[in-house]
Amino acid sequence: MKRLLAMILAVAMVLSCFSACGSTSNDSSTTTAANSTDDTVATDDTAVENPTEPVDPYADYEIWVENEDGTTSIDFEQYTALSAAIYSDVLGDYYEYYQAASEAENVSEKYALYAIAEAKLLEECVFVSTTYNGGGNAMSRVMVRSGDYALWGSDSDRMHNYVVTNEIITVADRTYLKELWEELRGTGTYLETAKAYLTEQGYTFDDEYVNSYSGDAETFDILATSQAIDSEKVIQCVDGLAEYDSEGMLQPALAESWEVSDDGLTWTFHIREGVTWVDSQGRYVADVTADDWVAAMQHMLDAAGGLEYLVDGEVGLSITGAYEYLTGEITDFSEVGVTAVDDYTLVYTLDEPCSYFETMLDYSIFLPMSRSYYTSQGGKFGDEYDPSASDYYYGTTFENIAYCGPFIITQYTNENTIKWEYNETYWNPDNMQIHSITWLFNDGSDVTKQYNDFLSGLVDSVSINTSIAAIAEADGYTTDNYIYGADLGTTSYLAFYNIYRTCFANFNDSTVLVSQLSEEEATRTNVAMLNVHFRRAITYAVDRISYNAQFYGDDIAAVRVSNAYVPGDFVVLEEDVTVDINGTATTFPAGTYYGEIRQAQLDADGVAIQSWNAETNSSAGYDGYYNVENAVAELEIAIEELAAEGVVIDADNPIHIEFVTTGTSELYVNGANAWKQSVESALDGLVIIDVITADASLDWYYACYYFSYGYEANFTINTLSGWGPDYGDPSTYLGTFLDNYSGYMVKSIGIY
Questions:
Q1: Residues paired with residue 411 on neighbouring β-strands, in sequence order
Q2: Which CA distances in Å does 498 have to 659, 660, 745, 748, 751?
């Protein structure tokens, strides 16, 4: 079952979703009007006598196995077959166009076909975008664009270049600096010029950046994780081959230079000499050599932490032998195309040219790892890799990794404080603006804490959300002086629809977030969620501006709304391209935005989604889905089709959808209730959104984020997570919805 089978089978032997995952609650106290057994139910003016039971089209797949101790575990073979069947039925068109795009030789043709593929993905409404990151109101002491500026990968999380002032930076000065950045971008002079300007305006500078955080790392092994909550802590501590600077330009880092062969298949990097690894005490461990990237790549593939698909050809980049190593076809890592020719010459060999390979160099999967330190912590490679071994310590704490970057983690107390201090042996001290970072835990339960901490100087940034906007204004902080609108980012946050839910309590604790649906209600919901017109109906019924307003306020609620997965201006055609749009050869000239092609396919298919605004050249800033008339029309089609499957939807038999969120944050509860009000009002109560709140944020994370496979997803709708691009190509987004466990996000719709 491809590269993850061995690991998943092992997990399945010990991991149980408990009995709650294989069945739903039959507690009569939770029965609602959906259990009405009226003898006659009217639908489309046709009386249906004794409506049949809902027909689950995938009921023949028996995915749960009863264990001797009374728990249930997954039958992985059956589950994979079930997932494949659902995927083919729901995302088959998207997959077809994605494959065509990945096989295109011309970069612009790839972009056009990816745009068509995304149109097919959006049309299925297995998710709806809620917002891009950024774009909210804030106050800050961090200078505009002083961090590493990257639209993808890991460099945007690096903080060593942050310019931090002791004074709150005004809106007027931010506006000036933003214009200055646009003027100086690419010259390498922005940081010093901007600092000089701030000095002239009377600002003074701090040597430390302090902010808050809300989630602890589960591992400090950055090569064995796909979760930003882990990597954002460690990325401060390890340098890569190259790094995007504050002007968005790729600069040499631990590779002094590199070149590519004429056929695009061989990339040779010349590693910087004199760089050292140290431990958490700053003590010498080893020299950084080319072999550290060989060790890192093998460990990343061994660990299979979720990002290995980026190099095995599943998405686009194909390092020779990586796929075969992952699947076990080869076991000798020397056959994989990552080679240390000597101590300071590193070579990557590809199966096919990759136009965006350089844009991947800033991502965590291309970071080095000290082989000698790894083995000293019990680490092994290949078949001997065993992170559960009693002598395996690598990455278990911040004290069990080696450092070659600007900072060393010197303190880490869960749900309390994280402290980074300057690495005295760092090779590039001139490329640092601050020398320490502190993060303070904030679970969000006190909505005014971050604001009060900011005013007192304890933290350096604060988002001005709806909970504190009025307080800030009363204190004299307004959009006229200090509150600014942040730039929109490229991370797409999504509302995921679990289209075939099989888990009805948290997979790690069967007593937590137990579903309130009866077994019949759960089946009705599943059958309804499998219907594309039903999914479109609930999607078109959501007023996402109202939803966003609960978090960001009425003034910028629309600014934050996104209408696609890939930002429409993420790439543009480099040359004229002609592609087929529903049988019509359509030519898009060079300079055409990706989003324009995507919209052309949506329009040709007659799907009422506006994912691109040609006037603003953007996929954000408006709600291109919300339309009550369209929602009702789609629901009418769904009602007719679902009646044939034994699912009658009327006032006495609505469909219940559980929207899982955290009860620890007023903002998230308000957002969920805005979603509920919008859908129930638009669809006249025929769909009920049941807001389920977790008593602890961690429980919410396990229900909606920490799960590894679709059968562990304990929600029907959740809005907890999203996806940021790993590199500069649309496949970085779209590849997350590939089949057979290769697409990272596909598990969030309940399969794979």
A1: 419
A2: 10, 11, 12, 7, 8
Dihedral sign (CA 686, 690, 691, 697): negative
* C-beta of residue 421 within 8 angstroms of C-beta of residue 407: yes
Q: Rounded to an integer, what distance in angstroms lies between the CA atom of residue 601 and that of residue 616?
A: 19
Among 338, 349, 360, 337, smallest CA distance to 263 is for 349
257 vs 30, 254, 270, 374, 402, CA distance in Å? 65, 9, 6, 27, 24
Tens of pLDDT, residues 126-150:
999 999 988 889 999 999 999 999 9
pLDDT at site 373:
98
Q: Is 501 left (phi over 0), alpha (psi -120 to 50) or beta?
A: beta
Separation between Cα atoms, residue 243 and residue 272, nearest integer Å? 14
Residue 392 has pLDDT above 80, yes or no: yes
Mean pLDDT over the full length of the chain: 92
User: Do the strands 242-244 and 250-252 form a parallel or antiparallel pair, or are they unpaired?
Assistant: antiparallel
Distance CA 300, CA 367 (A): 10
Assess contact for 360 and 151: CB atoms under 8 A.
no
In this structure, the chain runs to a length of 752
**DSSP characters over 669-680:** HHHHHHHHHHHH
Q: Are 646 and 526 in contact (CB under 8 A)?
A: no
Residue with tokens 């089709």: 641
What one-character-per-residue DSSP string does 69-96 give? TS-EEE-HHHHHHHHHHHHHHHHHHHHH
What's the distance, Cα to Cα, between the start and end of the chain in Å?
11
Q: How many CB atoms neighbour CB 46 within 10 A?
A: 9
Q: What is the DSSP letter of 53?
A: P
Three-state secondary structure readout of 529-590: HCCHHHHHHHHHCCCHHHHHHHHHCCCCHHHHCECCCCCCCCCECCCCEEEEECCEEEEECC
Q: Which residue is it, tokens 């984020």?
A: 705
| Angstrom distances, CA of residue 475 to CA of 102, 294, 449, 501, 718 | 54, 55, 15, 47, 35
Distance CA(283)–CA(452), nearest Å, equals 39
DSSP state of 709: S
Of 368, 203, 337, nearest to 261 by C-alpha is 337
Confirm whether pTM is higher than 0.85. Answer: no
Which residues, listed in sequence order, are joined to residue 346 by a DSSP beta bridge?
Answer: 269, 340
Q: Positive or negative CA dihedral for 458, 460, 465, 471?
A: positive
Q: Is the distance from CB of 50 to CB of 33 less than 8 angstroms?
A: no
At residue 519, what are phi and psi to the nearest 5 degrees?
-60, -40
CA–CA separation, 605 vs 120, rounded Å? 9
Q: b vs e for 396-407, b when ≥16 Cβ sit within 10 Å of the residue's Cβ? A: eebebbbbbbbb
Q: Cβ neighbours of residue 746 under 8 Å, at least 6 residues apart? A: 87, 710, 736, 737, 738, 739, 752
How many Å apart are CA 396 and CA 389, to the nearest integer? 12
- pLDDT at residue number 467: 85
- Cβ atoms of residues 122 and 565 within 8 Å: yes
Residue with token string 């005295």: 424
